[in-house]
Structures are given as C-alpha cells and as structure tokens.
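Reopening this ticket.

The earlier resolution said the output was attached, but the attachment link was broken on my side. Pasting everything inline this time so it's all in one place.
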Amino acid sequence: MSELTLKELAKEMADIDFTMLFTHAGNGQMAGRPMSNNGDVEYDGDSYFYAYDDSRTVTDISNNPKVGMSLQGNKGLLGKPPIMIAVQGEAELIRDKETLKAHWNKELDRWFEQGVDTPGIVLIKVHAHRIHYWHGMEEREITL
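Inline output:
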C-alpha cells in the first residue's frame, strides 16, 4: 500500500463522523471527548468543531491550545483493519459569525437550535502539525 497524500487522508477523515478531541485539563491531565467533524475536513490540515463557550473543552483550549485528535474508520480493505489516525495540533477559538456560517451544516441544528445565532456558540479550529496514521499494515506520518 502506498503512502497517502494529505488530500487522500482528508477524504478518509471526512468519512469518519466522530473524533476524540484531547485537551490539557487544568489539573495537568489529558481530557478527551467525542466531537463530530460533520464531514468538514478540507485537508490543508484543519478540522472544525462546534462547542459552547462555557464548556470545559473551550476552557481547556483557552489555557493551552495544544490538542490531539484520534479517529478510527469503520471500513477495512479486503478484511484488513480500518484506518486509524492520530493528529497533534493547535486549536483556535473562533467566534466570528461569518466563519461560523462558512462551516455550518443543518445536522448541527440538533445541538445548536438557533444555528449560528445560538448564544455562546464557538467554532474550534484545529490546525494539524503532525498526523500519524495506520492503514492496514502500513504506518506513516505526515508533518505539516
């Protein structure tokens, strides 16, 4: 199996609905929680997630923007294990309504009933610095 390009890896990531997003908690420990990427993975290395401004996730990122993500696909090729991806990066908190709109999709209405006008909504942009993946028996790394 050949090494995946960043664009090919983005396609794989877009097919995975949930990722575990890891932040540094106030007590120095790592904290992880599931986040939906809603297929919004235009891979130049950025992933986008919505949260509430008063959430622990946002507090953690405000204190330390270094984050990690873990993703696992549900499809293996010819009986091989599915793709597994680990991302290390830096998070940015975005509150600009135009940027919120640019990454919005209707499925998010389930969690944010007023759409981008929901009070306290924030967009978390994770810019990857290093992506390590396992695709079947192959293990590769992409550094951005």
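Reporter confirms the inline version is readable. The CA atoms of residues 80 and 137 lie 8 Å apart. Strands lie at 18-24, 30-36, 46-52, 66-72, 84-94, 121-135, 138-143.
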